[in-house]
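ok new one. same drill as before - structure tokens go in, u give me an amino acid for every spot. 303 of them this time. try not to just spam alanines like last time pls lmao
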């Protein structure tokens, strides 16, 4: 069965090239004719691993192509997920499966609500990739991909394809707990790196701020019915700060490069959940206000 990959960005290219390298049928879906022409001119997608580039001439098409889609990897940013899914909705075969690669929470529900007849699997990825140029991707960090379906704990048979392609993965019967935990880690680290304009490691100089946020996030996770995601959160945040000390967080990189952030699906989602549950989390709320102000001052969207 063909893997349709929507979005030839960092993660979409990383998945598409590895699937194609394993001899699996892959087709890219690019947003418009201009992108499709640019892609054809490039001659394919280039995966750069350990400094070695290798090009794969993966076929590409527009969202409006007329062939049915049975399996779709949705590899865009969280704020594009719902409209991107809508752009191919008519092509989705009954019972088609979607893998949603978006970070944070909220976009998965938006897509699943739009497509109630399709199976939506959620992915939480700790792999790292970036684009040095159009249609090129650098595999920058090994990691893990957790896959799961909140409404069906049975793993799909095609996980074998991922095995064959060397895409490290684990089936997660509780994918929401994974996504909540990652969201909490992100909320405790990324906004502070933006506001202090620093690398992750420099947050070790703000221990009280980090500890207070972790306590509030832990309370939020408990109230949202995610006790497993709350366990040892503060220790884990400190571990990540130390392990990634030299890195700039993804949100810091986005702001520094004038790119839209995924704030609405990270800190924004956490703040909205706190409000919905009637939990008063003053530090988290203040952090959200400061971050929104900071983005506005830099002329960046806050949704
Ligand atoms: P990215 O490099 O910005 O790629 C997103 C791609 O989606 C872009 O190529 C964009 O096309 C495409 N796209 C958006 N809307 C589209 C549409 N309607 N039709 C066709 N293509 C569309 O983003 P990314 O870094 O891969 O991130 C994807 C998700 O993975 C995010 O939620 C991110 O947080 C998460 N994530 C990323 C990493 C990483 O290392 N990169 C790691 C873990 C998680 P254009 O190029 O035409 O704009």
């Amino acid at each position: 069965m063909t893997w349709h990959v929507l979005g030839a960005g960092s993660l979409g290219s990383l998945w598409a090239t590895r699937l194609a390298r394993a001899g699996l049928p892959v087709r890219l879906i690019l947003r418009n004719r201009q992108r499709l022409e640019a892609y054809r001119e490039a001659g394919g997608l280039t995966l750069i691993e350990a400094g070695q580039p290798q090009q794969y001439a993966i076929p590409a098409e527009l969202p409006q192509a007329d062939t049915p889609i049975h399996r779709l990897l949705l590899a865009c940013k969280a704020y594009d997920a719902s409209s991107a899914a809508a752009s191919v909705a008519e092509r989705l075969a009954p019972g088609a499966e979607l893998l949603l690669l978006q970070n944070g929470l909220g976009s998965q529900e938006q897509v699943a609500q739009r497509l109630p007849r399709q199976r939506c699997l959620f992915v939480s990825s700790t792999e790292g990739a970036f684009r040095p140029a159009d249609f090129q991707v650098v595999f920058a960090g090994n990691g893990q991909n957790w896959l799961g379906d909140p409404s069906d704990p049975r793993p799909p048979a095609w996980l074998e394809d991922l095995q064959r392609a060397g895409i490290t993965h684990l089936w997660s019967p509780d994918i929401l707990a994974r996504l909540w935990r990652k969201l909490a880690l992100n909320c405790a680290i990324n906004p502070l790196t933006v506001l202090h304009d620093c690398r992750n490691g420099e947050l070790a100089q703000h221990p009280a701020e980090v500890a207070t946020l972790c306590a509030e996030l832990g309370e939020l996770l408990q109230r949202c019915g995610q006790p497993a995601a709350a366990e040892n959160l503060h220790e884990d945040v400190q571990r990540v700060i130390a392990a990634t000390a030299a890195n700039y967080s993804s949100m810091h990189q986005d702001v520094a490069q004038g790119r839209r952030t995924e704030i609405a699906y990270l800190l924004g989602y956490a703040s909205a959940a706190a409000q919905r549950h009637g939990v008063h989390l003053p530090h988290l709320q203040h952090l959200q206000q400061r971050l929104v102000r900071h983005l506005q001052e830099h002329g960046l969207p806050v949704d």
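The domain at 177-297 is CATH 1.10.1040.10 (N-(1-d-carboxylethyl)-l-norvaline Dehydrogenase; domain 2). and btw Residues 6-12, 29-31, 35, 63, 75-78, 80, 83-84, 87, 101-103, 125, 127-129, 131, 262 surround NAP (CB under 6 Å).
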